[in-house]
Amino acid sequence: MNIQEYMQELGKQARTAAKVLARTQSSVKNKALEAIAQQLEQQHDQLLSANAKDLEAGQNLAAALRDRLALNDSRISSMIEGLRQMIALPDPVGEITDLKYQPSGIQVGKMRVPLGVVGIIYESRPNVTADAAGLCLKSGNATILRGGSEAIHSNQAIAQCIQTGLAEVGLPKSLIQVVETTDRAAVGELIRLSKYVDVIIPRGGKGLIDRNTQEANVPVIKHLDGICHTYIDDKADYDKAIAIAYNAKTQRYGTCNTMETLLIEETIAKKILPKLVEKYQEAGVEIRGCQLTYNLLPNIQLATDEDWDTEYLAAILSIKMVKNLDEAMEHIRLHSSQHTDAIITEDWSRARRFLNEVDSSSVMVNTSTRFADGFEYGLGAEIGISTDKFHARGPVGLEGLTSQKYIVLGDGQIRQ
Amino acid sequence: MNIQEYMQELGKQARTAAKVLARTQSSVKNKALEAIAQQLEQQHDQLLSANAKDLEAGQNLAAALRDRLALNDSRISSMIEGLRQMIALPDPVGEITDLKYQPSGIQVGKMRVPLGVVGIIYESRPNVTADAAGLCLKSGNATILRGGSEAIHSNQAIAQCIQTGLAEVGLPKSLIQVVETTDRAAVGELIRLSKYVDVIIPRGGKGLIDRNTQEANVPVIKHLDGICHTYIDDKADYDKAIAIAYNAKTQRYGTCNTMETLLIEETIAKKILPKLVEKYQEAGVEIRGCQLTYNLLPNIQLATDEDWDTEYLAAILSIKMVKNLDEAMEHIRLHSSQHTDAIITEDWSRARRFLNEVDSSSVMVNTSTRFADGFEYGLGAEIGISTDKFHARGPVGLEGLTSQKYIVLGDGQIRQ
């Protein structure tokens, strides 16, 4: 069978399985999650030995990539724990909201329903296989998973646990399918399988996501990068500003919600920056400042134009002084990736303007951009973060994997 | 300037104008709607004479197309009335919902925001120019309108009124732009202008929508066709069943929410169909039945396989007898366009199953499919009906032209 036929076949089976899942009760979905968790426990050693094969084949991979690829006791436990947490989350499917009588006498409301079939394309982390499969199952969607070729043995071992778990509770195995070929053409087919796939969620580097988005005819939930800003206004509280700006950069460097550029009003900069930059430098953060910042603190580097558009994902921070809120928001408009941007201020009207006017998926006042996360937002889980406006925006949890249909209840009403 | 540059330029201007509109107060948007309405009143004669040019140029058009193209006093009044109704609707932009404290102490909620720039592609009806422009303006979106080439003079005359109205209240004219060329290449450019356009809404025939969807790299809100079903269950109330099934077909023939296929349980068919079909035939509806229906009522036509997949948009109805609810839902799964499907039954469990399991944008119990409409649903207005699951589903009103961003309010919280 060629790749095209193979992917069509996966799609067809997923579509059929999705129909079964749409009418499956919450309790059965939860039993399946538990059965998969138990399989992962029982197959612990097999998972490690499958992963060892991948690691051996990937000896030439970069260290960071090898780290993401590696499974160990704690990563397997956290996959299992993640599935059990999903059991505790409320089932989004079937929720009815806004049910109201209309003048004609009909009652109109919305019922939450699964999207149908979700395609997940990801890179080296094998734990995504279990996480994504679990979230899709809980939200009533069939899933086609396409992991990185470097993780193929690990992913197939996890897939085996998933399939066995599904079968144990009498659900079709084709609900959650892992693409078994490492041929890259499979990705090209998957993103154009609009007949069978309702949405694609790519998880990985910008290159992967950009490529998938350009070529897809299936809708894509994506975030390309996280160039997040914090603006310290001259009405900011001194201590809060330092604590938040420090946290937003240093709490973790490699995450998409980490601040990459600090904007600061000129007059308060002289008071705050010397102490703040000292703290950053103690933590090993390299500072690249605009000319004014450089004039104030000559022991930093001078930023280039490119810095304002760079997601460092590293212990590097660019700092720019601005005249006022308008200049800060203009910088954000030009350089933000519309992921997460924050203002630090005690000024009511400026906080309101920032909240209203900044066009990012998360807009914050007096807190750290590091909070932009499905768990911190109370979603219970997160399958990705969308910087698009269409469909879901910001952290995407179970609700983002669903849609709403209208339901209309009558008692014989006809239209006049 | 070539078409590509021209469309890029429109897109760029729309994007800039959208930024202005996003921070424009409700009262100003409402004043703009009123100013446009007054312009349409004042330019009444100019609108008619521009329309006369289109009608003269379109003498060879089919009668139905000429009818859609024609403006008259009542159609101009209804454009004006439509704009004034929008003034009365609540502004969706800025609405904050679900604002809740999280364990960390941050407050997380969602704020409704405009999508940005909306591209509308439509066919001959010039009134869409005013309706769509008004809805997009009210929901805070800039709009690029591309009407049918046969309506170019009418659309430009309406555009003139819109631009004057915008200017009167100090809003940029580029908020609502009408494409001034009739070159079809402009459509091809518009649907691939993802840099500047956030969503495309095609309004028109299936061919137009299909083409746009295949080629677009901008998300599309679309509905392709309306093959709507009504299933009369054997537990249906006799009088309600007849009244609803009659209304769903005959209240209007040319609309997408008109029933095209009647499904009926075999045992109740013998009781209901003779009277119901007689009523249809008195109204001039041609009946095409399955073999069993034909056996019961030989004065009808025998349906072909093709009938089950046809949107007649005419005084034709196909009727099929089924054994039970499962067979009815299976027929709907195979043949429905997922627009609107209804069940007539007094049986609680079957009604619940139908509501849960039928995967259409509107699912109804004991009422007429003709109610699937933004006004009847209380949305106040409608820019289209989406049969997709992604983003909006069912009738799309002001809310469907918006998205939600997360807002996070803190008081110095940092992430641990």
Can you give keywords for this protein?
Aldehyde Dehydrogenase, Chain A, domain 2, seven-stranded parallel β-sheet, 416 residues, 21% strand, alpha/beta, 14 helices, homodimer, Aldehyde Dehydrogenase, Chain A, domain 1, four-stranded parallel β-sheet
Most extensive contact: A-B, 67 and 66 residues
CATH topology of the largest domain in chain A: Aldehyde Dehydrogenase, Chain A, domain 1
Q: Structural class, judged by helices and strands of chain A?
A: alpha/beta
- Sequence of strands across the biggest β-sheet of chain A: 10-9-11-8-7-12-13
Shape of chain A: globular
Give the tally of structural domains of chain A: 2
Oligomer: homodimer
What is the helix content of chain A? 40-55%
Helical element count of chain A? 14
Q: Got a strand count of chain A?
A: 16
Largest sheet of chain A: 7 strands, parallel
Mean pLDDT of chain A: 94
What is the CA-based Rg of chain A, rounded?
24 Å
Molecular structure report:
Two copies of one chain form a homodimer. Chain A is of the alpha/beta class and 416 residues long. In chain A, 42% of the residues lie in helices and 21% in strands. Chain A is built from 14 helices and 16 strands. Chain A has helices at 3-22, 26-42, 44-57, 63-69, 73-88, 127-138, 152-168, 185-190, 206-215, 238-250, 266-282, 291-296, 325-335, 348-357, and strands at 96-101, 107-114, 117-122, 142-146, 176-178, 199-203, 228-232, 259-265, 286-289, 301-302, 316-322, 340-344, 362-367, 384-386, 394-396, 402-413. In chain A, helix 12 links the parallel strand 9 (286-289) and strand 10. In chain A, helix 2 (26-42) runs antiparallel to helix 5 (73-88), helix 3 packs antiparallel against helix 7 and helix 5 packs parallel to helix 6. The longest helix of chain A is centred in the first third of the chain and has 20 residues, at 3-22. In chain A, 52% of the residues are buried. The mean pLDDT of chain A is 94. At the A-B interface, strand 2, helix 10, helix 14, strand 13 and strand 16 of A face strand 2, helix 10, helix 14, strand 13 and strand 16 of B. Strand 13 of chain A pairs parallel with strand 16 of chain B, so a sheet runs across the interface.
